[in-house]
Design goal:
Mean pLDDT: 87
Distance between the termini: 23 Å
Length: 365
């Protein structure tokens, strides 16, 4: 499934360095703006300790994790909404993503030029917020104009839509992102075709120097305070540290390096898990001697649609799903033991798949 999260930020905040660490697809990382002209796309495995546990018990021939597509989008600048700095192309790339990873520079380094010539993550955030808001305003005003033309012919639906579209425009006019706006599903449906940018969920990543990984700094605290109204998650990483960590191939050496900084896991693991949750995703598993695999679905997905992620025939000919809870599998250690304990349930078409379910589908086509 092609779920995408886009990495955005001003030039030289550490986006491409972060992307390089996240993915095997190596983006160009250079000390000047717009070094990433085309968006780089990487498929990134979602860290999940449950997959490792199932591997130990089942001993399969193959293990396949869940993945998220990460898009490295070239740095935005002031005026991007009007086409400055290849802005139109970059904004279109954001529109294709379902969630945004917003990287904020929270470190000083005289050797890395900042496009605004000073370090201020709140200002940087506001620059990008403003550009996205301006683009959304432009898109909604065009829709409003077209809808008004339709209403002149007596189209009652168009008359109702005018009021709704204006409501969104007024909210943006206050300098607020649309993800903060309270609106009904019916109202969101009115502007669904516009592809507004500021409605996308956002994860903020504070990119710090290595010392601040342990001790923190004033920039991080300012960011946390500023985004608290959004109830958004803030993750602190050092992209440079993560790049160095990625060079260790031996897991034991990697853990020693992490522990030397008082860390239990890479910051990238936190970023990917948070992005996965931000996209409103969850995981179910299939487990057999040939393969243990994590499958990605939206939360609240019913069994037939979850089966369809594996193959459309599974959904079309769905009969039932045999479900084992992850905790029961770990406790009893084998599928046979789970069945013997009466812990495997048989579910029909209305069953809502839960995160961590181990599924076996019965179908007939």
């Amino acid at each position: 499934m092609g779920f995408k999260a886009g990495i955005v930020g001003l030039p030289n905040v550490g986006k491409s360095t972060l992307f390089n660490s996240l993915s095997n697809a190596k983006a160009v990382s250079a000390n000047f703006p717009f070094c990433t002209i085309e968006p780089n796309i990487g498929m990134v495995a979602v860290p999940d300790a449950r997959l490792d546990k199932l591997k130990e018990l089942v001993k399969p021939q193959n293990v396949v994790p869940a993945v998220v597509k990460i898009v490295d989008i070239a740095g935005l600048v002031k005026g991007a909404s009007k086409g400055e700095g290849l802005g139109n192309k970059f904004l279109a790339n954001i529109r294709e993503c379902e969630a945004v990873i917003h990287v904020l520079r929270c470190f000083k380094d005289d050797n890395i030029v900042h496009v605004e010539n000073s370090i201020d993550p709140i200002r940087d955030k506001e620059i990008i917020d403003t550009e996205l808001q301006l683009k959304d305003l432009e898109s909604l005003e065009k829709k409003l104009e077209n809808t008004k033309k339709m209403s002149k012919g007596g189209n009652k639906d168009a008359l109702k839509q005018i009021e709704v579209i204006q409501k969104f425009i007024d909210f943006l006019g206050q300098g607020k992102n649309l993800r903060l706006m309270e609106a009904s599903e019916e109202e969101w449906e009115v502007i669904n075709d516009v592809g507004v940018l500021t409605a996308k969920p956002v994860l903020y990543v504070c990119n710090v120097d290595q010392d601040s990984l342990i001790n923190g700094n004033e920039y991080i605290e300012r960011v946390r305070k500023d985004v608290s109204v959004e109830k958004a998650e803030v993750i602190v990483i050092s992209a440079l540290f993560e790049e160095q960590l990625a060079e260790f191939e031996d897991m034991e050496e990697k853990m020693i390096f992490l522990e030397s900084y008082g860390l239990k896991e890479p910051g990238l693991s936190q970023v990917i898990r948070a992005a996965y949750q931000l996209l409103d995703l969850q995981t179910y598993f299939t487990a057999g001697v040939k393969e243990v695999r994590a499958w990605t679905i939206r939360k609240n997905t019913k069994a037939p649609q979850a089966a369809g992620v594996i193959h459309s025939d599974f959904e079309r000919g769905f009969i039932r799903a045999e479900v084992i809870k992850y905790e029961d599998y770990i406790h009893h250690k084998t599928e046979a033991a789970v069945k013997e304990a009466g812990k495997m349930s048989v579910e029909g078409k209305e069953y809502v798949v839960q995160d961590g379910d181990i599924m076996h589908f019965r179908f007939n086509v």
